[in-house]
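User: Hey, quick favor. My workstation is busy. Could you predict this chain's structure for me?
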Amino acid sequence: RNLRTRARQSRLMKPSHHASNATLAAAIAVRQSPIHGQGVFALRAMHTREEIGCYDGRRYAPDETDPAWDDNLTYLFGLSDGSVIDGAQGGNALRHINHACVPNVEAVERRAADGTLHLVVRTLRRIRADEELLLDYALVIDDGDEPASYPCACGTVRCRGTMAALVAVEAIAR
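Assistant: No problem, here it is.
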């Protein structure tokens, strides 16, 4: 299940050209995932630090009411300026990227010329054709919530058992 997350290790970067929708469609496909529901798969091999595209959707300003929350399936991505992107409304295929504790892609913030933050998804390592793209959601959970309430299904050897940010898991362990 996709849940509200924040850009882990948000970095403001110089503006650059983002992948167009046509380029995005030629690079990835949404298919059934062995991890959960639908996932995003590479249609071709990709290089390390290759930009795949921007996470799109309706934007909520920091002072706007939070979007409706659905405990079953949510495509919300919080940015460092307090704004939120809701990929369920006007979003693209990148909203289907599943979580893994050992990711192969990351989401980084990039500030556009008009000052708006954008979320760029890029590879962390080389990706093989047909490999599923996986992001560490690093969920920021509310005080009192248990990381176990956000179970992980990635199945990797280094799975931490939750989609919650490692900081939350370490705080509970203390």
